[in-house]
Each structure stands twice: as C-alpha cells, then as structure tokens.
Amino acid sequence: MSVLDWQPPFPGRKADLLAFHTNTPFILSEVKQSLFNDTTGFACVGPQKLAQQVTLRLFTKLDGKKYETSEGCQLVTEIVSMSIHTVADARRAFEQSRIDIMDRFADDVDTDPSIPADEQLYDLQWISGSLQGDSLNLSLRVITQAGNSFQFTMPVTVS
Amino acid sequence: MSFEISSLDLENLNADEVEARMLRLESIAEGLNTGIELRTGVVHDFVIRLQSILGQALNDRLDTVGSSLNPLAAPIGAPMESDVLDATAAFYGIDRVAATSNLGQITIVVSERRTIIIPNNAAFKASDGRVFRSISSFAARTSEAEVRVASDRLLMARPDGKYEFTISAQSVDAGAGGTLSASSALSPSEFSVPSFDSAFAATAFSGGLSEETDEELTERIRRAIPAKSLSSRASVAAYITEPGAFPDTLAISTIGFGDSEMQRTKRTGLNVSGGAVDTYVRYNALPSTLAASLEAQVVSIPAGGKAVWQVVIGRDVAPGFYRVIGVKDSSGESLAISSFERGVDNSPIDGEQVPSIQSATDGAFSRYQTGTLQFESNSTGLSLGDVQNVSLEIEYTPNISAIQSKVGNRDYRFVGGDTLVRAAVPVYVSVMVTVHAKPGITLSNSADVKSAIANYFNTSGFPGTLHTSRVAGLVNGYLPIGADVASVEVVLETIKPDGSVDRRRQTGEIDALNDPANSTTARTCVFYCNPGSIVLSAYQENIPTTA
Known about the structure:
The complex is a heterodimer.
Chain A lengths: L15 E2 L25 E2 L1 H13 L15 H7 L6 H25 L9 E12 L2 E10 L4 E9 L2
Antiparallel strand pairs in A: 1-2, 3-4, 4-5
Helix pairs in contact in A: 2-3
Chain B lengths: L14 H18 L8 H29 L12 H10 L9 E10 L5 E3 L4 E4 L4 E4 L3 E4 L10 E3 L1 E2 L5 E12 L10 E5 L6 E6 L12 H11 L8 H8 L10 E5 L20 E7 L5 E13 L5 E8 L9 E6 L5 E2 L1 E8 L15 H4 L5 E10 L8 E10 L3 H8 L10 E6 L1 E13 L8 H13 L6 E3 H9 L6 E13 L5 E6 L2 E3 L13 E4 L5 E6 L8
Parallel strand pairs in B: 5-6, 12-20, 21-26, 21-27
Antiparallel strand pairs in B: 1-8, 1-10, 2-5, 3-4, 3-9, 4-8, 7-8, 9-10, 11-12, 13-14, 13-19, 14-18, 15-16, 15-19, 17-18, 21-23, 22-25, 23-24
Helix pairs in contact in B: 1-2, 2-3, 3-4
C-alpha cells in the first residue's frame, strides 16, 4: 500500500498516531506511560488525541525541543532535575506548567480555527498526586471545549 | 557520497531554516494524507520535526560539499569539507601545506664536567609555556676522543667556569605559534638534566609552517587557474606557485609598467617605468633565520685603542635577507654591530638573465643584494688584515634565489624586459593589548591569544591596511564575561629598501608606509608579527599582567 492509497480512519478528522499505548513500543523507555487500554486502536482523534498532546507537552522539558523553543514546561524540567520532593512541589510545578500548556493550545486554535471543539483544550485539572520513592503518580483531567472530560493517571518514573 | 548521522552537526542549525523546512514538510505531507495530524502530536514530534532537523543538517552538509567542489564560486567564508577541498585542489596539482615545526638549537649549561645524555623527544619549556623537543638523543662528552657519532657533543668550558653543549630541537607547535627568538630562556620539562644550570635558544626557532587553512588553499586554487607565464600579475603568481615550483608561497605582488613603486627603470635617466618587473614575495608566515659562519677582517685601527672589523655578506649567503640579528665571535660572545650597508652584486649567472639594477636600493631584498657589516673590538695585538671567523644570525625569506632563477630562465622569462624577485618589504609588528577585567576573573590562554593575533597579520598577504578593531575582536573571543579589551596599540617597524628604518605607533588603522619613491607601499609591504612581540596585560585590582 502506498502512502497515497492510505485511507484516513476517521473521515473529516485528522488522526494522530496512538503512542501512549501498552502495546506500542515507545522510544522514551525511561517514562512508562499508558493512556489507553489494549483494546484501543493505534490512531486516535477527539479527547484521546487531545489527552495525548497534553501528555506530550507535559513531558517536554523547557528547551527540550531544539528548534521549537516555545515548547516545554516546568513540571518535567523539575522532575528530571530531582527538584520534586513533596506532592506540594509537584502541584506547584504542575500549576506553572498548566498555564504554559493552556497557552500553547490556545495558540494552536489561533493558527488553525478548524480544530474540532473536542480537540481544543478548555481546561487541565489536577485531581490528585502521590509520590512514592522515585515514582510520581499524577491523576489529571482534560476537559475539551466541547465539554468532554477525560481523566487519566500519569505514573512517571525517573531513573 | 554518504554521511553518517553521527558526523552531522544537529546542534547548531539555523533555527529559522529548520522551522521553514518543518512547515514545508507539514504542508507536503498534509497534501498526501489529509487525515493525519501533522502540526502537533506524535507524528509531528517524532517524524516531521526529526526529519526536518536531519534534512536541514544534510542540506547544510551538502552545501559545504558543493562549496568544496567549486570553492571559487562559493561565498567568501563559506564552510568547507576539508577532505573534499583537498580532492578539488589535487585536480589542479595542489596539495595542502602540512603543518611543520620550527627548527632551532638549544644550548644547555651545566655546572659540572661530566657525560650527560639528553633523551630523544626531551622537552624544554619557554617562559610562555611553548615547548621544544630534542630531535634525537644527544650525548655531551667530556673529551673530543669520546665524540664518535653525529649526536655526540663536546662539552665546552665557559668563561664563568661552567660547561655547555648545544643540541638540535624542534617546536611542538607548528608555524608562527612555535617560533622563539634566539637567547630566550628554556628549562627542562618532564625530565631532568644532571648538574643543570640553565638553557637557552642558541638560534631562533623558525621556518615552521602552519597547516594551510581552507581559505588559503582556495586562494591557491584561484592562483593556479591563470596561464603560467610571466605576463599578467595573475599569471606571474600562477607561474611561480605552479605545482613542482613554489606552491607554498603565501603571497605575491607584482610591480610593473606605470606603477609608482617601479624605481629601477627611472634610475636609468629615462624616467619611464616600462621594460622591468619587480615581483615581491612573501614565502612564510615569518622570516626564517640562519647562522652563517663568515670571515671578518680588521680594516682599520683608528686612534683610541679600537680595531674595526668588517664582514662581507655575499649574495649567496642568505639571498634576499632582511637584516642581521646578531654577530658572535668564536667563543660565542655577542658583538655590537657598528655599521651596516647594503650593496649589490649583479655579476652574470650562468643560464639566467640578471636584471638591470642601478643601485643597492633597487637590489634590496633580492638575490643580488650583498651587505657589509662592521664591528669594533679592542685593538691590542691586532694589525690590519688580521682575520677571525664570526657567526652571523641572519633573517631572510627562503627561496628568493630559486624563484629568481625560475623567472630568469631564458625559455620562460618575460621577453619585453627583466623580472627582479624581491622579498616583500618587511613591516615588523609589535602589539600591546590591554584588557580590563573585573576582580576575581582569571585570564588564561595567552599563548593562544598571541597565536591568533600573529596569525591575523601573518596570513594577510599584501593587505595595505589592517585594523586594530579586528585585533580587539580576536582577543575578545578568548575573554571570559567581565573582561574586555580596553586598548590595542601597534608599533610598526618598516625596513625600507634604502636601508632606513621607519617606526610608527598606530591605534586605529594599521597602514603600510606610503613611500613609492622608496618602493615602499601597500603593494610591496607585508606585516610580520612574531608572537614574542605581543604583550598582553590586564588592569584591575588583583589582576596581574598575563604575559
């Protein structure tokens, strides 16, 4: 099958490759992360796609994407520099990152107003967090402009 | 041609070009696959973005290869692939000049008369950190009977009761960065000399070449293209530097008809400048030095108890020499030069055309130049005509005689006149750089800074004008935050063909002297800057002088 023969799985939508999937070998081996269960397909749209984009942005260090310097946030920057010692530290870093990420998604909509409402970020909320050894478990909620809500847990291990 | 990703520079790409490439790639991919999200998300981050970075790096690399394949069409300063440029140069029969060490002699003084072994590659360090290594093992012997092989040296008694011997050595640093003036103090490093007292450079360390840069190699390719004949200025340079001749020549400037510097023909009385060509040559970054053993003769014994000795420097001793740096008698004692006069010997040479030369000034720095040097001594026990051998340290440009022979060859010489090859008029540069630094800042790398400054002057060809602001910029590149160049002062010492010396201090533009009646202009002068003539100093509380 050539590239030109490829048929989009979600007509009228732009699908992203589903990377945070337990069956998907993922290049960031140090970060064990799964957003979706095994029964989900390997392309995603809507809230799942948005949650994945939120995760990618949340996992990007400040200056972590060379030549795309507007990307990156405080949370993972502090995690890899071992600056998170308490859940309060994680909450503070998350709130700083949340603002930056909301701005980035707003910029995306300014650039491309045709983004579907269920792929636009309305809010990113902290549900809970726990710190055990070198594992940080964050439970977050993504709310789309269309009103969908998607809650997921991010177990982050930094070794 | 293939490139390993590991050999690509992914870190220093132009961010705007990467972004533009990313947008183009997104647009192309969207046209092919309307259903895939490309501007954000996984495909963007792990396919589009990485492909854009890699594509830009490959593009940049291919640009450098393209520049290296056609260096004459490349923008000035464009980066090159050195190995590709070497292959391009080979097409013109040109090889890149390799780095070579400066050669010289080291005298080692010891307190005891005993056999001393200096190992091969033994290091001697100068006060500024430059290192010079013995070129083989040497053995200092206590009697002539023990001196059996070339590396054996006889331990000589000194007037101060100590002993000395001299070994051959070479600089670790190539080119101008590894030069050292005669008499500079040295000390053993990484090894010890039994009964060691002191060591010094018996002769200057000179003659080394820096590896030819991409820019210099490109310039030689440019010079290799014109026809190799003695007609236009470009073809004269191509003729002299053609493969198998003198390809290492750094710069050539040709003076001919209508040029104000052409004085040879004016002295015939006709006051015209046709029929003669003067070709000025810069062969090395710095002039070379040689030690010549010549006979001195007592030529007068004036009243007052002094004898005047005279030494004649023939035209073959150091063809095209600039100056005599020092004179020593057979015991190694330095003698003060009381007078020096240039002359000319234009007697015929087999198979060569000898150019018309009317005066010593017109023959200065050519292979026909001679010199007469005088020094004085106590006249006790001396009579007119007495002789002694003395050693002269002479500074010169190599290959002047050989290049003259090449241009004087009957088959190839200019049929409308004669060509005189002259070493470029020397302008010796001393540089004083003052750095202002905040307290607590450490200034280092003074040897590297000096080398960079010297390189600026020594690779400038026949520039006419250079700038102290460029020197300041070079130095600033080595300074930490909190330290800046406060001033740059340059002293120029020009030896003109008539033998007079012009000294000037400059703080802005660094200009060659404009004295065409003395054949001294931007078209005949080159700047020589020895790192040893550069002084770096810093001021601020607790900041010491760095050199």
